[in-house]
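Changelog-adjacent note: as of this version, every example in the card shows the full chain rather than a window. The one below runs 536 residues end to end.
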Amino acid sequence: MNQFFLTISPQLVPLLVTLPLLGAALALIAGRHRRAQIVVSVTTLTFVTAIAAVLLATVDSSNNAIAVSVGGWPIPFGIVLYVDRLAALLVMVSSIVLLAVLLFSVGQGAADNDDDTPVSIFHPSYLILAAGIFTAFIAGDLFNLYVGFEILLVASYVLITLGSTESRIRTGVVYIVVSLVSSILFLAAIAMIYGALGTVNMVQISERMGALPEQTQYVLHVMLLLAFAIKAAVFPLSFWLPDSYPTAPAPVTAVFAGLLTKVGVYAIIRTETEMFLDNDINDVLLWVALATMVVGVLGAVAQAELKRILSFTLVSHVGYMIFGLAIATPAAIGATIYYMVHHIVVQTTLFLAVGLVERRAGGTSILRVKGLMKAAPVIAVLYFIPAINLGGLPPFSGFIGKYALFDAAAEEGTWLMMVLIVGGIVTSLLTLYALMRAWNLAFWREDDDSAETEARISYLGASPSGVDTERRAIPKIMTAATAGMVAVTVALTIFAGPLYAICTRIGDALLQPVTLVQLEVENEISTGDQEKEPEE
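Full-length structure tokens:
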């Protein structure tokens, strides 16, 4: 059976991109048939999830990555799709999240007669977004990573402006301008790397980078980091995120918060562990991680609107991932991957829960929403579980990931690591405070104690995105999709052992860069090439 999967896996890799693109084309053709679009989208993402699971099991059991040369071109010249444990794990988690959010959006679209999420536009754009995410994760060279980012940009601009309201168009313009600046930086860095090294293949870059002068290496390194830090919302380049995400429809906000910034983090991981492993700027990254954690969570504490609270916590928790990456040990990298998976799932779940709150209460401002514990106890539970998980309470996955990061930092034992540990603990406590304060005000607060409570929280100001809407019914499929994601967050804790073991193996492998010879061997193994007799 293992040999069967080893043989078939290379043929499955291109399907991670081609299936969503074909699905998007079919969904566009079936623009007037909502049910047909739903079937196409759900089927596509279900198949991608199954393929990713097979690929993860294959690369993990065989201890060999899968490298596929598209069109049969030799590795240095053609497009290489590269699936190792990290890529396979993130594709699988992303496809699960995309599928759950899709089901949530189907319920919302049906209930609203597609006014808020027009199906004819939503489904093709959503599948193109998925194709961009998967392309970025399995790209073996910088240019195709850039292509993945651009596919994301095109699709996300359509999704973030769905409904064409004034606030969505305004924030959408900010989002696309910032994204274009990041893309220009990335493209300029690619051009400079190609001019200096004669390749954009990540493996070849890692082999040839040491031949460049140290100053040139730093320039290339910093340019890539700036481009990816904008996409990952790393402080101080995170200014655009808190205003951009909250205005979008609930499903769009959920998938953006869960996945888009993680694509940027993934690119930083590849940059630091594969291309610039010997070019040490880890001390700078540690300070950046600390600033991202602290500034982000302080922004969350000052907010009175649930979506903005979650947007700022999103920024702050990206800091944990940069923290683990900057420690640069196998244990720290493994903990970073685990925390990344945890955050993708939990952050998405929280935004889905807030989407339910918005429909039930007609708004998401904790200054106005109250009494939901009695009115909607199921929503209260669906918010509470991922909230305490994100806050890092034991025994949930948030606590496991943070403890692993702090333990890896403590093993280094430097004063800067101790500072980061203290900053991480403070950030975790403030995250828990912000989320529990929101839960207390929106769910526990009763009408008769509103005057006293509002006097205590008078320091909170109304946010520009905290606009009340009409209360709407919540279809069962929306609640079921959110409950399913809550179950996945709990599963991250129940199955933390096997998942963390995979992440540890990823950490070990990332700090042992693949050479071009190894990549060619993996490509021959994955494609089943046999030795050929030399031509005369």
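Structural remarks: The chain is about 75% helix and 0% strand.
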